[in-house]
Structure of Fe-S cluster assembly ATPase SufC:
Amino acid sequence: MLKIENLHAEIDGKQILNGLTLEVNAGEVHAIMGPNGAGKSTLAYVLGGRPGYEVTEGSVTFMGPDGKERDLLDLDPHERAAAGLFLGFQYPVEIPGVSNVQFLREALNSQRKERGEEPLSGGEFLKLAKEKAGLLKLDMDMLKRNVNVGFSGGEKKRNEMVQMGILDPALAVLDETDSGLDIDALKVVGEGINAIMRKPEKAVLLITHYQRLLDYVAPDHVHILAMGRIVKSGGPELAHQLEEHGYDVVMEAA
């Protein structure tokens, strides 16, 4: 589904990614772990198409649900989203003056239009939104409020997972979704990710510092990213090694 080869990227002239290679197949959950400054968020932003991040070498190909292989780096951010890519932010932004319902309906229908599909009516959309909000235990009244305005950290993350459920991507790139979550919210978000994305035709690239989210979203593969590239890969046991020994010991062994 996603194939990254020898990816180099920089921001403001500073090299961040240094030859990163990774392949994610449909039906898989991959966890990316690593110390601060390793390039984890840069990888997420490059995949999402955030302005200011310049790819200087390498390639990224993506195959969405239509079975068409695309050069991801040639697509604008809205084209990547319509093709089936979702980027979850570490710090979801607030959008004053725009209701969640309005924002999400416009986002979904613009993607459907890009794919040549009919837009959802107001009633159809509200039914879908209620279903996805229920998965994340988010009150429908929250969806009537302005996007993330006045939300707690946990509410922002749950709201973003509702967005993911409504947009129904093929590939979710989640940048430290566990950041700022208490124990209860962590469980709800983890169960929401499983319900929405744990399907044979979907995949998840989960960027995290800690093991705790992986207790709920069990990864098939765990990768350590350091100095802008993946230095070690393994199964779920690798995350437990990091939790027990820290990055230095595991990276020295790598």
User: Anything to note?
Assistant: The two ends are 27 Å apart (CA to CA). The longest strand covers residues 14-24. Residues 2-253 form a domain with the Rossmann fold fold (CATH 3.40.50.300).
